[in-house]
Design goal:
mainly alpha, 8 helices
């Protein structure tokens, strides 16, 4: 596990093959009707696995610009491939446009996002805060999955477990100092609490 977050040879060929595998798997799973509403299809409509994939790439880069370019290329290959496979299997026009409206902007944002993600490798407060922000995404998604699961158990249970397990695994594998690990774990707590307070005070839901 430790090798996954900092011990892989993440060359360009590895990134491309990784992207093709992720895109093909996601497109195929997303096209299986029996997977509808389950954790197995969540990879096609949510972000938790893609956050993990980005962290794996960033953890195995030696420069910030390298992280930015490799994560961007990873999404630039995997997302269109996923889209093409789903269209072949009968994705409707409305579904295709909805897919593009979400993953198109996300793919573009991976360029600056990948640049920032590189700094999770820093064994200091800054690096632990950056990792904590990534953990915050996982925390929000995990909470959302738990809410969905309670309404229709046990659907999305696996996805909820993946979200919260990834927070612990990434934190303890990437950050080596216990003080920095505490920061990376506290940041999502603070962000989630702040979001709940905002919702309670304004009555607005954060999308």
């Amino acid at each position: 596990m430790r090798k996954l977050f900092g011990g892989l040879k993440m060359g360009w060929l590895a990134v491309i093959l990784f992207a093709v595998a992720a895109g093909a798997y996601t497109g195929i799973v997303g096209s299986i009707p029996a997977a509808e509403g389950t954790s197995f299809k969540d990879i096609a409509i949510s972000f938790e696995w893609w956050v993990i994939f980005a962290v794996v790439i960033a953890s195995n880069c030696t420069k910030s610009w390298e992280s930015a370019l490799k994560i961007f290329v990873f999404f630039l290959i995997s997302q269109p491939l996923c889209f093409i496979i789903e269209v072949v299997f009968g994705l409707s026009v409305d579904q295709a446009l909805y897919y593009c409206s979400i993953w198109g902007p996300v793919t573009l944002l991976t360029l600056p996002g990948g640049f920032i993600a590189y700094y999770i490798n820093r064994q200091n407060v800054f690096g632990s805060v950056i990792l904590g922000l990534g953990n915050s995404i996982q925390a929000f998604l995990g909470i959302a999955y738990i809410i969905q699961m309670l309404g229709n158990p046990p659907y999305h249970l696996l996805s909820a477990i993946v979200c919260f397990a990834s927070i612990l695994i990434m934190t303890f594998q990437i950050q080596k100092d216990n003080r920095n690990r505490v920061i990376s774990l506290l940041v999502p707590v603070v962000v989630v609490v702040a979001a709940l307070v905002f919702i309670r005070m304004t009555g607005r839901v954060i999308v």
